[in-house]
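Example record for the data management plan.
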Amino acid sequence: MKKIIPIHTIEFYALLVTIGLALLNSVFPAVIQQYSPYLLLLGMVFPGIPHGAVDQHLNTRQHQTPYFLCLFIAQYLLLMALVFLVWKWQTWLGLSLFILYSAWHFGETDFRRLNSFRPVTAFLSGFSLLVFILSAHPAEFLSYLRLFGLVSVGPSPYFFVVVAVLCLLTFCLLGFQNIRERRWEFTWIVLVLIISVGLPLLLSFGIYFILIHSWTGWRDIKRGLQATHGQLLLKALPFSIGAFIFFAAFIISSYDNGILSPSYMSSFFIALSCISAPHVLFMARFYREVLSESGQG
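Corresponding structural encoding:
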């Protein structure tokens, strides 16, 4: 029986969007560069922030009592504060930890989605994916590192080319060796990564984070909690609003005499790392305790 190539998948739709943006970028590069942050912001409104705003509901063994909610908020804020203090203590350490736990989270989500989850493989896959996106955009990556005060003069472009190629090969090797049933979906992800090299770094990261990772996480939570999209949106609304206020406060703090400082991007990523850390922890437990026990993860 002939296998049908799956096109009605998150990954394939992400590929179509990536191709469209790449074509637009080839004609109007200045427009894409100017509006990349706004496209990322739109994606953060949904599903970026909402997929992480239902963490209080992920522990289905706990009754949603006021005591549980207060305990959850306290744990969340404490971990966010610890991550923020790490950034203030050693910027390089804050950035390194952000990359490491993001790599774990991305790899876990992808490989559970593709029914091939193994902890070490998932982490290495997520790490190679993240480093590929960064190293494939060396000029922009170095400019962000300079905003954090981490580098003055970076390695040569050839160094980044070698790193990017090695990471892409590692990502492909891990995926095609371990994924048996859903290789086409993984192929779409590889093509998204390759094509997005020609896009700005922010947009390249945003395509993966929003169109693949966040949608996958949203779908997994919806399935695990047996909720509709509308029910999940309502559950996510209170903490989504809180997250928007949190990000706004970080960006407002970057204004100097009414002018937005270039450091607003570093503030955005610090805020993202703070709010991501507890989300990664709660999602890992959700995958382990809810989806795995139900045979869905």
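Summary line stored alongside the record: The chain has a mean pLDDT of 85.
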